[in-house]
Design a protein that fits this description.
The chain has 14 helices and eleven strands. By secondary structure, it is of the alpha/beta class. The protein folds into two domains: 245 residues, Alpha-Beta Barrel (TIM Barrel), CATH 3.20.20.70; 73 residues. Helix 7 crosses helix 8, helix 11 packs antiparallel against helix 12 and helix 11 packs antiparallel against helix 14. 44% of the residues are buried.
């Protein structure tokens, strides 16, 4: 599959953009484990224009994580055009436009999925951004605002007419947020449209290698995107890639998975500082399936998520790893 001139191979698997998750370190780890392309945390156009330090840091792309896309969001044409040009200067392979974020502070203000209620403005933003930069522009969006307005099949054509190079469809409406199940039949309808010539990337509920293959087979999409299932478990890309290539997979060992988590912790602390770096990584530790099924784990889990120093957190992980090894 190609996006513009970027060849991602057969049945590529991508890391979804996720706020407070897909920082440079995590993206690099996912690439090393098998993700074919990665996306930054979403970047506010308004904050980028104002040169907010925390936002401009999101533009950093490490050499080993390429190909990488910078995702931007906003609700007005001119700020989005200016943000796209700033993002382009960071030299990503792709600029991606977020028309899918459902959270109230974004969609409720008319950005992200909020633009599903103002398609003319969505199309104006898309066309202007495409014309403003000289690299491929892609879009990530949802089925529609709610169950009564699943507009994605027609919208996909309209976005294609604006000049985008690929489209990612999350198989939920904005109203669903992240509840219920992703509608891959609707994603399949988008892909089956004979008038749609650009690649379609499917997103939603890709949680296992088996589900990844089913998604390709069920929908016919050109690529899939993994989001929440990678939090605390970036090795999902290793398993999916191996399964798609060979029909089977050998999970990483407990020791290998703990090595990856420790690396995430150390790089998070190194990138920020000890206190905030540990706070940042707690989301990964809380979500990690590595700790599921451990008997009487609740007190240890609480201690792990309350640890405030690197030494205390690493000591807890050492004990948990030993416990898992002995199970």
């Amino acid at each position: 599959m190609k996006i513009g001139n970027i060849d991602l191979g057969e049945r590529p698997v991508m890391l979804a953009p996720m706020e407070d998750v897909t920082d440079a370190s995590f993206r690099l780890i996912c690439r090393e484990l098998g993700a074919d392309m990665v996306y930054t945390e979403f970047v506010s156009a308004d904050a980028l224009i104002r040169n907010i330090a925390a936002t401009t840091r999101k533009l950093e792309i490490l050499p080993g994580e390429r190909p990488a896309a910078i995702q931007i969001y906003g609700r007005e044409v001119e700020p989005m055009v200016e943000a796209a040009r700033i993002a382009r200067a960071a030299n990503p392979e792709i600029i991606d436009i977020n028309f899918g974020c459902p959270v109230k502070k974004v969609a409720g203000k008319g950005a992200g999925a909020g633009l599903l209620r103002d398609v003319p403005k969505m199309l104006s933003i898309t066309k202007a951004v495409v014309e403003a930069v000289d690299i491929p522009v892609t879009v990530k969006t949802r089925l529609g605002w709610d169950h009564e307005s699943k507009i994605i099949v027609d919208l996909a054509e309209q976005l294609q007419d604006c000049g985008i190079a690929a489209l990612t469809v999350h198989g939920r409406t904005r109203s669903q947020l992240y509840t219920g199940t992703a509608d891959w039949d609707m994603i399949a309808r988008v892909k089956a449209n004979p008038r749609l010539k650009i690649p379609v990337i499917g997103n939603g509920d890709i949680t296992t290698p088996e589900r990844a293959r089913e998604a390709f087979e069920q929908s016919g999409v050109d690529a899939i995107m993994v989001g929440r299932a990678s939090i605390g478990a970036p090795w999902i890309f290793h398993d999916i890639r191996q399964y798609l290539n060979t029909g089977s997979y050998t999970p990483l060992s407990v020791a290998e998975k703990f090595k990856i988590l420790r690396r995430q912790i150390l790089e998070s602390v190194d990138r920020i500082d000890q206190y905030r770096g540990i706070l940042h990584i707690r989301r990964h530790l809380a979500a990690s399936p590595l700790f599921k099924g451990i008997p009487d784990f609740r007190p240890t889990r609480i201690a792990m998520l309350q640890a405030s120093t690197l030494d205390s957190l690493m000591e807890i992980l050492d004990r948990v790893e030993q416990q898992l090894t002995n199970l």
